[in-house]
Amino acid sequence: MADPLIEDILVNKKKTLSVSDISAMSKEELIDKVAQLQAHNIQLRNIIAKKIAPPCDAVGKGRDFDLSKCPKMHVFLRILYLGWNYQGFACQEDGNETIEFHLMKALLKSKLIASRETSNYHRCGRTDKGVSSFGQVISLTVRAAEPGKPPLTYCKMLNRLLPNDIRAVAWRAATEGTSARFDCKSRSYKYYFPKSTLNLDVMNDAAKHLIGTHDFRNICKMDVANGVTTFVRNIADAKVSTINDDEGGYQMCELSIVGNAFLWHQVRCIASLILLVGQGLEDSSIVKDLLDVEKNPRNLNTS
């Protein structure tokens, strides 16, 4: 249906005044006519401005942008980062040098989200200070392209704003409500170290004791202050292996651990234990003994 105001303006424009009509007008009539035409011109501009709003993907400097009017889409986003220059992945109240801080800053600046609180944001896991990740995954609801237009280039948009050692490498659409944290089936961590004089056989003997469902309260850092009182976790796989040939006399190894979820500093404590076993400073049975919480109980108030 046509806008009545536009129809009225078009009707008035059809009443074309001839030169003789204008010449016959008094000064007051001419002033009234000019004022009337100016008013119609302003009204028409306002109508056109409302009907032809800038598209949601046209984010630029100096442009008014209303994110609430844009289409939305829930996505998984894969992040790669080198962590040695950062204080860990998760945001901290007393510092800005975290991966998540820079990621949120880029998401906000690119107008992909209005705020963290309203974006349905979840992370698959968190890494400690200095730890890198080649497969961190987050889920969130972001601004989407207008219907009929190509998808937004999320990785390219974010990488223009992120530090060089933090990269968005892939994304895919997800069902609304799916969570990178709660719907994750497994998480894997790897520790790399030189073989040196380590005994890999006894290290693997120790690692085998980790596989299965156990109470890991003796092999983690207590986080009771944040409500963590259950320490039972499942480890699907744990092993030590070499990752390159010993041609240069310097062989590297990796400790690989796969599980559904991990406790605070659990992986770090496991790595420390396995390395002590490899150095001959502990017996491989130390892992089995620490997992026996009846034999070696730990007060939940200790850290």
From TrEMBL:
InterPro entries: PsdUridine_synth_cat_dom_sf, PsdUridine_synth_TruA, PsdUridine_synth_TruA_a/b_dom, PsdUridine_synth_TruA_C, TruA/RsuA/RluB/E/F_N. One of its GO terms (cellular component) is nucleus. It is an enzyme of class 5 (isomerase). One of its GO terms (biological process) is tRNA pseudouridine synthesis. GO terms for molecular function: RNA binding; tRNA pseudouridine(38-40) synthase activity. It comes from the Eukaryota. Residues 206-299 form the Pseudouridine synthase I TruA alpha/beta domain. Its EC number is 5.4.99.12. It catalyses: uridine(38/39/40) in tRNA = pseudouridine(38/39/40) in tRNA. Keywords: Isomerase, tRNA processing. Belongs to the tRNA pseudouridine synthase TruA family. This is tRNA pseudouridine synthase. It comes from Lygus hesperus.
